[in-house]
Amino acid sequence: MIKRILAAMAVPAIAAAASLGAAGAASASTGHTVSFTDNFHGTQPFSQVNPCNGNQLSGTQTSNIVNHVTFFPASDETWATFTEEDNFSAVDEGTGVTFTGHDTVWGNFNLNQQNANQTFTFSVHAAGSDGSSITSHEVAHVTQLPDGNVSVSFDKLSLTCG
């Protein structure tokens, strides 16, 4: 789960960095915002660690992902956000229990000369074929000042294994 969380947190930062390159290519005299949105819909395999027992979970997920970036060619301001929703099915390789469930990941990244911030949320619920369940929710946030110092930082995770 931690690898997935870190990867998800990197998406807005990567999108913002990509938009900064596009901002340089855009005409600085327009003064207008430039926005783009990327969508992904598909099914892919995944492998995660079951946070309740440490066993490997292997399965497939069907995802809907929307990534949106807005930037100002005549300034340093960039906003990026993404939302991912997945329906999944996975087998716990240690117990043979099949888990089915849904997760939602959301993140944003904002940058200008005054500050930068990034917020991330993650929620998942999985029901096991043996009646067990996994429920988790996480909220993380970082605010950075112009001098590079972090003024706010927290990461709150809850996990319920049943």
Report what the structure shows.
- The protein has one domain.
- 15% of the residues lie in helices and 60% in strands.
- It is built from one helix and seven strands.
- The protein has one helix spanning 2-25; strands at residues 34-49, 56-71, 78-92, 98-111, 116-128, 133-144, 150-161.
- A seven-stranded antiparallel beta sheet has the order 1-2-3-4-5-6-7.
- Strand 3 (78-92) and strand 4 (98-111) form a beta hairpin.
- The protein is elongated.
Offer a concise description of the structure:
The protein is mostly beta strands. It is built from one helix and seven strands, in the order αβββββββ. The protein has a seven-stranded antiparallel β-sheet.
Keywords:
single chain, 162 residues, mainly beta, 7-stranded antiparallel β-sheet, 7 strands, 60% strand, elongated
Strand content of the residues, in percent? over 45%
Task: Give the count of helical stretches.
Answer: 1
Overall number of strands: 7
Largest sheet, if any? 7 strands, antiparallel
Order of helices and strands: HEEEEEEE
What would you call the structural class?
mainly beta
| Spatial gap, N to C terminus | 17 Å
Task: Please write out the topology.
Layout (H helix, E strand, L loop, with lengths): L1 H24 L8 E16 L6 E16 L6 E15 L5 E14 L4 E13 L4 E12 L5 E12 L1
Antiparallel strand pairs: 1-2, 2-3, 3-4, 4-5, 5-6, 6-7
